[in-house]
Amino acid sequence: MQSSDKTDEKRWLGRFSNIDAITGLCVLAVFLFGIAAAFSSKDTRNLTVVADVPIYYPVAPPEAAPAPSDAADKLAPEAAPQPAPAPDQPQAKQLANSSPAFISLLGDDRLEASYYLSQSKAPRDFYGGRWAPENIESTANGTTFSVKKEGNTDVPFSIAEASTYKRYGYGRYEAIMQIGKGSGLVSAFFTYTGPYFGDPHDEVDIEFLGKDTTKIHFNYWRNGKRGKFATFDLPFDASEGPHLYAFEWLPDRITWYVDGVPYYASELNDPFIPKTAGKVHFSHWTGIPKMREWHGKPDFGTEAVTTVSCSSFTPMGEDKRSCSDVYKEKKNS
């Protein structure tokens, strides 16, 4: 009886040994299959090395975090770390017609040397006033862009806009601006090209509404189609002093900055990222009555001013003097 028990015991132990061996082989096979599948996947974004300081989107300043506005345009992309380019990825090419780096200290530099001043005799499109070159002036603090009441029923307002003669592509765009305050006003810093120039409508924007200058708006367009725009609260009132605003437009992503802090970015490889070099624009305007639901009824007195004291462009992959340097120098002084 005892001998039989020992035989059964050996038999059961042998079975468990076989089961353990089979289980181990199964686990090893699954592990090897997972590795093979990962490396054979066409989408290798999850395998790339994350940058030393990963950026998550939307991005908020560490101290006073801007929350997305309660407005209808709360379309921030889901949070995702920004991957670094793969080592074997070819360097992205600059867009055709893109010009070299520049920096303009507006107020000191003669604006007309680099910028075209928009001009019209009457309101057109969705703009509620005539473009008036005389509403752009150089001052000790920078170049002012004024919106004025005209007292004319047909032309109730005069508005201001300047755009570069040259076109610019991938790189970092910066401006130091103090925004005009008052319901009905729109201040904008953006790149644009479109059918007027024989191009698709491509655009990257930073916009402010004078009715609430504690908010900032980010937009982008490709071939007339709008990407995922967003509105953020600022930790300051943009009408009370100059601040540094910027966006970095790259082939696979656009990132927007306020005072050097990243606030928002498009999704990686978003199909709405522009692909055509455009002109740099600054504008200050009020719209036709249909636009008042967005920017408010004009109620800013007889004149309101947006001031731009610096504008710069640094091409992708280059390191040039920019408005960031000017802003730091002014703060330090």
Automatic annotation (TrEMBL):
InterPro entries attached to this UniProt entry: Beta-glucanase-like, Beta-glucanase/XTH, Beta_glucanase, ConA-like_dom_sf, GH16_AS
Pfam families: Glyco_hydro_16
GO biological process, one term: carbohydrate metabolic process
GO MF, one annotated term: hydrolase activity, hydrolyzing O-glycosyl compounds
Span of domain GH16: 77-316
Domain of life: Bacteria
Coiled coil (UniProt feature): none
List of catalytic residues: E203 (nucleophile), E207 (proton donor)
Alphabetic keyword roster: Glycosidase, Hydrolase
SUPFAM superfamilies, alphabetized: Concanavalin A-like lectins/glucanases (SSF49899)
Record-stated family: Belongs to the glycosyl hydrolase 16 family.
PANTHER family to which the protein is assigned, alphabetical: XYLOGLUCAN ENDOTRANSGLUCOSYLASE/HYDROLASE PROTEIN 8-RELATED
Name by which UniProt lists this protein: Beta-glucanase
Organism: Hyphomonas pacifica
